[in-house]
Design a protein that fits this description.
The complex is a heterodimer of chains A (207) and B (138). Chain A has five helices and nine strands, in the order E-H-E-H-E-E-E-E-H-E-E-H-H-E. Chain A is globular, with a radius of gyration of 15 Å. In chain A, the strands form two sheets. Chain A has a six-stranded mixed β-sheet with strand order 2-1-3-7-8-9, sandwiched between helices. In chain A, strands 4-5-6 form a three-stranded antiparallel β-sheet. Chain A has one domain: Rossmann fold. In chain A, strand 1, helix 1 and strand 2 form a beta-alpha-beta unit. Chain A has 207 residues and is α/β, with parallel strands linked by helices. Chain B has 138 residues and is mainly beta. Chain B has one domain. Helix content of chain B is 5%, strand content 30%. In chain B, the strands form two sheets. Chain B has a five-stranded antiparallel β-sheet, with no helix packed on it. In chain B, strands 5-2-7 form a three-stranded antiparallel β-sheet, with no helix packed on it. The longest helix of chain B has 7 residues. Classes of the chains: A alpha/beta (207), B mainly beta (138).
Chain lengths: 207, 138
């Protein structure tokens, strides 16, 4: 039986002017309940609307203690994403007046070399969060959109449902990825990459 | 070329289906705004990137739309009855119009209108650049 450590972040909006992604809280709640029902030894940190970068770093630091080889480490972000573009060269998760970049994620994951890491980036440009770092240790990245893509709120909501349904059905990551490829949302929504590539044949979030 | 997000909304005040002509550079999917239940749904129609201009069907009294990462070209066949709005993904729609026919009895039209095609991108909160410090793993 694997141990489960998770950081679940839901930030509906980073500021007063960006339309709120109201489902962010519900996505976190849905994943929280699913993980607790699936793993007997589950330790989960939830971060909400007021989350700032230091809060995320603190959560990673907390989770990095007392790791064991049979630990699955899940990080979920639901909210707005920030594109890498001119004048802002890093992909990022939009926090409360703050942001958590792809470099921040790569650095935060370094202590998690011995765990099975699954990071879900449920936001626009989410795939770009995995560009930085070497990630030579096990890492499964699930993104609602590629590095150059956006995702509509109602589709992002669906991503978590797809993951949970597939995990419940004991699908492999490869099977879910194939379903994503053949689902015609915009032609580029939802992608899964595992490192090493052979981990695509593993069962999704196996308990 | 940095990613650019464009949200496009068609509001049909006509009693007939209207079919503007659209040319887009990327693959786009058609969405409809719903008067009840979930705010929006895919119509099931999508158009591959760089195809020749295609007709975008907007039902009588309905509101449909799509999102593209690039500028699009649209020809409006009935400017007096078909309103076409374009905003950047992070920007709000302009104030809602009088609801078209399919939304005449919709109690939360303004909310639905504001949420239509909400894309999950945001402006940068802080300016960051590629760091000179490279993460080196042992």
């Amino acid at each position: 039986m694997a141990r489960l450590r998770a950081i679940l972040i839901g930030v509906p909006t980073p500021d007063a002017t960006t339309p709120a992604f109201a489902a962010a809280d519900a996505i976190v709640e849905r994943m929280d309940r699913f993980l607790k029902s699936r793993f007997e030894d589950a330790q989960i940190v939830r971060l909400g609307a007021a989350t700032r970068k230091q809060d995320v770093l603190d959560a990673f630091a907390t989770m990095a203690t007392a790791l064991a080889d049979n630990t699955r480490f899940v990080v979920l972000f639901a909210g707005h994403g920030i594109a890498a573009q001119e004048g802002h060269e890093l992909e990022a998760w939009a926090l409360n007046g703050d942001e958590f970049t792809e470099d921040d994620l790569a650095a935060a994951l370094v202590p998690f070399r011995t765990t099975d890491n699954i990071v879900i980036s449920d936001c626009c440009f989410g795939g770009g969060m995995f560009a930085a770092g070497h990630h030579e240790f096990p890492l499964t990245s699930i993104a609602a959109a590629g590095a150059d893509g956006f995702v509509i709120a109602s589709i992002a909501d669906q991503l978590i449902e797809e993951i949970i349904a597939a995990a419940t059905g004991r699908w492999t990551y490869a099977r879910l990825a194939e379903q994503f490829r053949t689902t015609a949302f915009t032609g580029r929504a939802f992608e899964i990459v595992t490192r090493p590539p052979g981990n695509m044949e593993l069962e999704i979030l196996a308990p | 070329m940095p990613p650019r997000l464009l949200r496009v909304m068609f509001i049909n005040f006509s009693a007939n289906q209207e079919t503007p002509t659209v040319t887009a550079q990327d693959t786009v999917a058609e969405w409809r705004l719903n008067p009840t239940g979930t705010y929006e749904s895919l119509t099931g129609n999508s158009h591959a990137a760089n195809t020749s201009p295609w007709g975008f069907h907007v039902p009588a009294g309905g509101i449909n739309g799509f999102v593209s990462m690039y500028a699009v070209t649209i020809t409006n066949p009935n400017p007096t009855k078909l309103q076409i709005l374009q905003v950047n993904g992070k920007d709000p729609w302009p104030p809602p119009p009088i609801p078209p026919a399919l939304f005449a009895n919709c109690s939360d039209f303004a909310t639905r209108y504001a949420q239509f095609l909400l894309a999950l991108n945001a402006s940068p909160a802080v300016s960051t650049h590629r760091p000179s410090l490279i993460i080196v793993e042992p």
